[in-house]
Design goal:
By secondary structure, the chain is an alpha+beta fold. The protein has one domain (6-117). The chain has helices at 15-26, 30-48, 101-109, and strands at 6-14, 51-52, 61-62, 71-77, 87-91, 116-118. The strands form two sheets. Strands 5-4-1-6 form a four-stranded mixed sheet. Strands 2-3 form a two-stranded antiparallel sheet. The relative contact order is 0.24.
Length: 126
């Protein structure tokens, strides 16, 4: 059986971007709605238990009280299947400016989706 490549878009969302995304989500923009919902869900989960930074080599634990994330990396499936959700991963202050941030996110996502691929502008594979 042939494995299908799963294309995702990845967005790094900081606080100013989240504020803009909330406004666009209220106007019905689906990508922004998915980003906002995924980030809000992650923040709710952080109320219960601290979350590790999304970078595979960073051991920073973040919560929404003492060690706040600087941003979130949000992965949204290009062609969602039933049960697919957007995934938001916290990014700490030390990792937000990493040049390999998107590569780290892709590597982490391959644990969930072995055929994970980042959709590049103009690329529409299903």
């Amino acid at each position: 059986m042939k494995s299908t490549i799963r294309n995702f878009e990845i967005f790094v969302v900081d606080l100013p971007t989240l504020i803009k995304a909330r406004e666009l989500a209220k106007k019905g923009f689906k990508t922004e709605q998915a980003c906002v919902m995924a980030i809000e869900h992650s923040l709710q989960m952080m109320n219960k238990e601290a979350m590790e930074c999304m970078c595979r080599d960073c051991m920073t634990l973040m919560d929404n009280k003492w060690t706040l994330p600087r941003a979130f990396a949000v992965c949204i499936p290009m062609f969602p299947k039933p049960g697919d959700d957007a995934i938001a991963c916290a990014i700490c202050d030390g990792c937000v400016d990493r040049v390999d941030l998107i590569d780290c996110m892709a590597e982490s996502m391959r644990e969930f989706y072995p055929n994970f691929s980042i959709a590049k502008p103009g690329e529409w594979k299903q």
